[in-house]
Amino acid sequence: MKKYNSKRYNPGEYFPMPKVIFRLDLDAGEIAVLAFLMYCEDRETFKCHPSYSTIGEAVGMSNNTVKKYVDSLERKGYIYTEPTMVRTRDGRAHNGSLQYTLQPIKPIEEAYFEKQIRETEARMRYQNAMKK
Q: Is the pTM of this model over 0.90?
């Protein structure tokens, strides 16, 4: 029997990725960006601040595509973004990277499935009305 390399199973080499992410009607780009943000996040504050370029390099997307998916994830409630400011050595202020706060998945999951139930019930009422 082959022994497993213990380094492969080092918990420090992994980050949590909820299984439900794959059932919440996210497309591949949204999943990739969200997964990278989960990889970067501080596990105590649930915040991170990678630039669009950093995210894009990690997931193979352009800055504009990353922005599109970040905006989509924010609209859907998965993340909250805040602008940051950076001061240069000579004291000038510049826009920094966005600070991302990842939201808990459980409430998002519950809201998503409740919405699906409401939509199914509405379709059934409509179909029943059309039969009459």
A: no
